[in-house]
Design goal:
heterodimer, A: 252 residues, 6-stranded mixed sheet, 4-stranded antiparallel sheet, 28% strand, B: mainly alpha, ABC transporter involved in vitamin B12 uptake, BtuC, 73% helix, Iron complex transport system permease protein (chain B), transmembrane transporter activity (chain B), transport (chain B), transmembrane (chain B)
Chain lengths: 252, 317
Amino acid sequence: MVEVKNVSKKYGNKHVVENVSIQIAKGKITSFIGPNGAGKSTLLSMISRLISKDSGQIVIDGHDITQTKSNDLAKKISILKQSNDISVRLTIRELVSFGRFPYSQGRLTKEDWKYVDEAIAYMRLEDIQDKYLDQLSGGQRQRAYIAMVLAQDTEYILLDEPLNNLDMKHSVQIMKVLRKMVDELGKTIIIVIHDINFASCYSDFIVALKDGKVVKEGTIDEIINTPTLQEIYDMEIQVETINQNKICIYFN
Amino acid sequence: MKIRYLLPALIVLAFASLFIGVKDISPLDLFDLSDDKARVLLISRVPRLISILIAGISMSIIGLIMQQLSRNKFVSPTTAGTMDSARFGVLVSLMVFTNASPLEKMLVAFVFSLLGTLIFMKILDKVKYKDTVFIPLVGLMFGNIVSSITTFFAYKYDLIQNVSSWLHGDFSMIIKGQYELLYISIPLVLIAYLFANKFTIAGMGEEFSVNLGLNYKRIVNLGLIIVALISSVVILTVGTIPFLGLIIPNIVSLYHGDNLKKILPHTALLGAVFVLFCDILGRVIIYPYEISIGLTVGVIGSGIFLYLLLRRKAYGL
């Protein structure tokens, strides 16, 4: 379980994240939603130790992240940021093999390669595994990064806007894979996501943030309804149930 | 660009290099070596060959490390102020300690080139507009500023001739007793190889490194220390060899990607072959006179560099 206790972060005088306390359940998909500048990405980066927090505590499975070695954390929690625009020319297979770094420090054993192969197979990248990242489409690249995180074999996987710049088909593909990773492999996934319909259709829990504070957290039913969405986004959003999915209509 | 082509090429060129020069020594003489021919070989030809190989290998490798750490294909010791800062360091060592030993000069040059490179990396952090071509331009400007300070003091203290000798790479002055400093590069290159995977991860950015549990700052600093040390050693013994750290890694990267562990041997070999080829060319073109390595590499290198730049446009890289 990830426990966030009274965590705050300030840039200058502005609180980006203010006194946030949440608990994230194991084996579920939790989505962070909210308007731009709500502090979603900052919170995600703090949970994954990419940026430091000003106050509060973050505990992962009983271990305070500031007191845990970075290399040990790398075996427990992984993060993909929205702008993984890597200029280094690597093949998919090479990239995925770097996911084993926390375990092997670069000298991969047979077992490490087994994880690499499995991750590539899981993301269906076998046919293109020797292609360079810069030869891939956006969707393929995103799948390659997720394969790397899979090879990293962490219980917690954090993704910052994984659907950024993806078309509908690839967005659905990624979300389905994430769902599968939770249901089949028992991963715990936390995503920052803008499209509330994807959050509604694929996540178990939603944490809604606004101005650095948690407005509301709960199940889909508790969050995806017109009054709550009004509170989060300051606009009236109609919610319809289509095939048991709650769909938000916010275009007019 | 396969190792199985590069290695024979290197051996053939290396062998040829030993027997090209004003003093006529043929391979057949090896079986019946007269005293003066043996001396020429041991005092001049062999040291020259060794220094060509070490300089070619180490300069290409530090270019590659710099490109990964700065995440820019066009950053190298000559386009990031490293070489200029090292030269400034040598000048300072000459001004302050008039009788500095080569090792002392190297240490001062090292401190300066490390500082210069760190300043460049800091500028890199601050620059918002991270265009691939813009960054090395900033580096070149920075290098020129350092360079002009060097020239100013060099004129003031009558050291301008010394300074211009480091400006221009030249292997013809290499003889036994004057190049041994270069051996310091060998363990550094080995360290680079041992840390290759970590440099590649660092090349994917700080966040990426932290995610994999790598101490990003420590690796970047280690890389910059290797770069600064090798730059100082090479500038003191051979001088500046322009473009080398830029074109060799770029050519290898085109064919084999950027996985450092995989491409380091290629880069090293191609660097050595290229410098050796340019040196031999420089020795035969106006035989019995010589064109310095700085010029031959500069001419051929700038051509290749232009090609790389244009190709980058064509492929939208």
